[in-house]
Structure formats: C-alpha cells, structure tokens
TrEMBL record:
Transmembrane segments: none annotated. The keyword Transmembrane helix does not apply. Signal peptide: none annotated. One of its GO terms (biological process) is regulation of DNA-templated transcription. Pfam families: AAA_lid_14 (PF25601), HTH_8 (PF02954), Response_reg (PF00072), Sigma54_activat (PF00158). This is Response regulator receiver protein. Residues 7-124 form the Response regulatory domain.
Length: 454
C-alpha cells in the first residue's frame, strides 16, 4: 500500500506564530489559512491529512465559536482529517469541547515546537493506519470482486443481483454449463444480510438419488445400514445462510416433493427422523436445462418450478456476451501467470482474435481451462492461438459456412467430436477435456445427434 505525501494545514491568525510554525514544520511543506473561509478553501485544494487549528479565529479571536465552526466544516468535508486544536493557556474546557466534536487531539498555548511536532507526527501515522484499514475493509466489502461483467447483458444481471440480494426471494439462475451460475449465487449471498452465515452448495446431478436425500436433509443414527451417527444435511448446515442447489433440473421426482415441502413450510425431516426441524435458509437454484420443457415431459414438478423460480435470471452463453471473453481471459491470464510463476506478457493478436471468434461451448470454465493450460505450456513470451488450442478453429473452412450460428455450431461439434475421440468415447474424460459437466456433454451430444453408445 503506497504512502501518500504528507500535507499539513496550519490555521492561525497570529503572523508571528505563523512564521515560526512555517519554519519549524517545513518538512511537511505546510499550507496556511488565517480564517475559517480560507481554511476550507485550503482543505478543498490540498486535502491535508493533518490540520493544526487555532480555536481563537477572527472575527472572535477571544472566543472559540468560529474555531469550532471551522472544525466542524473541515470534518464534514473530509471526515478522515486529523485536526489538532490549539487553545489558550489553561482553557481545558474548550479543548474538551473540540475533542467531543471530533478533533483528534489538542494543544495549549504557548506553543512548544518539539511537543507539537510529536503530536503532528503521530496524527500522520494514525491517518495512514486508518487509510490502510479503510482500504482493506473496502476490498472485503466488494463481493462482486473477481466477477467480470463488461457486456451489457452481464452488467444488467449484476444490477439485478444487487437488487434481489437483500430480499429472501428464491432465485433460479438459468444458464449453460460454466456460464457463471455458481459465481453469481455466491455474489448474491455475499451481498445479502445472510453474508455472515454459511453458503452451502450441492450439485444435485453429481450425487445418486438415494444418497442425495440424506445429503440434503441429513439422517438419524441407525436410519440405514452405515448410519452410525446423527448427521446434519446441507439444508440444516445452511441455517441463517444460503443453500445453493446446482443442477436442480436433474433432481429425481421423489426428492422434488421433499424439496417442495421445505420451500413451502420451511421445515425438514432427517432421514429416519420423527420430528420436523425448522430451518431458515434462503434457496438459490441453478440449472442449465430448460425447466419448462422438463415440466412438459413430466420430469419436473410444475408446483416446484413456481417455488424455485420466484425470480429467474437467465445468464447468456459467453459467446453472446460481447467483450466478456477477452476481459475474463485477461484476468484469468494475470492470475495464472502469477500462480504458475511465469512471466508471460499476455496474448498475441491472433490469440485475441481466436478468443473472440471461438464459440465457447464450455463457457467461462472452458476459457479458464484453456488459459491455464496455455500459461503453463506457452514457449514464447506471448500466448498465441495455438497455445490456447484454438489455431484450427480460427482457420477452419469458414468460407462454406453461412452465418455465425453455423460457425459456432460447427466449432462446438468439432470440439465435441475431438474430445470424444481423444477420450476414446469415455464421456467423463471427454467432459473433463472440454471443461464441462457430464450432463452438459450429454446435452451437447443430443444437440449434435451424436450417438451416446458410440
Ligand atoms: N463473469 C465471470 N468473471 C470471472 N470468472 C468467472 C465468471 N463467470 C464464471 N467465472 C469462472 O468460471 C468458472 C465456472 O463458473 P461457475 O462454476 O460459476 O459456472 P456454473 O455455471 O455454475 O457451471 P456448472 O453449470 O458447470 O456448474 C469458475 O471458475 C468461475 O470462477
């Protein structure tokens, strides 16, 4: 944290004393004012961290009213300023009044330069410490840190998140795999009054149905073979905080009914338990699937849909968020460059063009994956399209393709086929290569008519 130049303002109407102070404190390059108006002008112009203020200012050099007004004006304008008031000999009452009004310290005339100097030094020191503190706090208060939103649709989403955060509304984040659903859910939590309480995430697609119930709702000792002790579920662990249910579209029907009950009545029952336990947790769900279509197919309960989608936020795929891919790539690059101890300079022009052109079927996660790999493997000082594994995509036979959608679809299919090929048809491995989840790769295979039994 870099220090700023120290600047002292001396508000004093006695010319003899002013001269003495100027000479004594020239290391601070002091600025001067003789009355309240001039003092305020100097505060505006020079933003001094420390002010030495004589309380007996004209037109009432014998009273303290004008000095007290100057004190309050300065603090209103620049509350962090350390104001040291100078009072008449023995006038403790005024000094105490000034301290009560926000002055940092006081000093009684006659002025002894060495003592005043110590007080001033300490005031600058405290100001620096407080500034550091303010900065650290501001960093912690920026919960959207790390979330990059350059494109208009993403900026709109961030504004929505900021509005929804203080409420308890159950929110559904709908977006393709890797598009940032979890980052947004976390931001929502951190911006909410629940921020001090836990954020508990669970991926409904990753856990087999019979285990998901006990993961979610917990179980009592002896509820089933292996249930050796009472165990709390994710819902209970999120007490006071936020429960993030990822891939809600993949939740089995039976469990949907239990989740609905929790959302309606705000109570749960542990597996093998006999009584209801009230839980106060805000629920945020996410899915890459089209819940309306799932409802039509009878796979998702309509009543649950209306409960989880009190507010729906649709996150567009990365390819539709103009400017985001490059901005996120650059931020990811900085992080990876540091993390892997490399000293690369950035992206070459062809890499940037490839990032803009690529269809990003795996969205930000794919971007993260490619940038990380490129940072580790790049030979030169700049990352080029080849390091990103995008050289072919850029040079693909695009003359034969009519529009952007077709280009993207072709790139998506190409990447899919390549990864399946490289993984010898092993879906999990192919998903890892592409940086997408298993359900997402099945969706992509369906979309491109690729046989899952291949
Ligand atoms: N706008 C963004 N700015 C910076 N990083 C982002 C952004 N969006 C996503 N990321 C990063 O991309 C990765 C994937 O994001 P996230 O896990 O939130 O996606 P998701 O939609 O929840 O994925 P999935 O559907 O596969 O669970 C994370 O590492 C996340 O930090």
């Amino acid at each position: 944290m870099n220090a700023v130049a120290e600047r002292l303002l001396i508000v004093e109407d006695d010319p003899g004393l002013t001269r003495q102070l100027r000479w004594s404190f020239d290391q601070y390059d002091p600025v001067f004012a003789e009355d309240r108006g001039a003092a305020i002008d100097q505060v505006r112009r020079h933003e001094p961290q420390v002010v030495l203020l004589d309380l007996g200012l004209p037109p009432e050099a014998d009273g303290i009213d004008e000095g007290m007004r100057a004190l309050s004006d300065i603090l209103r304008l620049a509350p962090a300023t350390k104001v040291i008031v100078v009072t008449g000999n023995g006038d403790e009452e005024s000094a105490i009044k000034a301290i009560a009004a926000g002055a940092y310290d006081f000093y009684q005339k006659p002025v002894e330069i060495q003592v005043v100097e110590l007080i001033i030094q300490r005031a600058f020191h405290i100001w620096q410490l407080e500034r550091q503190n303010r900065r650290l706090r501001a960093d912690a208060d920026r919960p959207l840190d790390g979330l990059i939103a350059i494109s208009e649709p993403m900026r709109r989403i961030v504004r929505q998140i900021e509005k929804i955060a203080p409420t308890n509304a159950t929110t559904l984040l709908q977006g393709d795999t890797g598009s940032g659903k979890e980052v947004l859910a976390r931001a929502l939590h951190r911006l909410s009054p629940r921020a001090e309480h836990p954020f508990v995430a669970i991926n409904c697609a990753a856990i087999p149905e019979h285990l998901l119930e006990s993961e979610l709702f917990g179980y009592e000792k002896g509820a089933f073979t292996g249930a050796q002790k009472q165990t709390l579920g994710k819902v209970e662990l999120a007490e006071g905080g936020t429960l993030f249910l990822d891939e809600i579209g993949d939740m089995a029907h039976g469990l949907q009914a239990k989740l609905l009950r929790f959302l309606q009545e705000r109570v749960i029952e542990r597996v093998g338990g006999r009584h209801e336990i009230p839980v106060d947790a805000r629920v945020v769900c996410a899915t890459h699937r089209d819940l309306q279509a799932l409802i039509a197919e009878g796979e998702f309960r309509e009543d649950l849909y209306y409960r989880v989608a009190e507010i729906t936020i649709r996150i567009p795929p990365l390819r539709d968020r103009q400017g985001d891919a490059i901005a996120i790539a650059k931020a990811l690059f900085e992080r990876a460059n540091k993390e892997h101890g490399r000293s690369l300079r950035g992206f070459s022009a062809d890499a940037l063009a490839a990032i803009e052109q690529h269809g990003w079927p795996g969205n930000v996660r794919e971007l993260e994956h490619r940038v990380n790999r490129a940072v580790i493997l790049a030979d030169g000082k700049l990352i080029d399209a080849e390091d990103l594994g995008l050289a072919n995509a850029a040079a693909e036979d695009d003359d034969n393709l009519l529009n952007l959608r077709q280009v993207r679809d072709a790139a998506e299919r190409g990447a899919l086929e390549k990864s399946l090929g490289r993984a010898d048809g092993n879906i999990s491995k192919a998903a890892r290569l592409l940086g997408v989840s298993r359900p997402a790769i099945y969706d992509l295979m369906r979309k491109h008519g690729i046989d899952t039994n291949n």
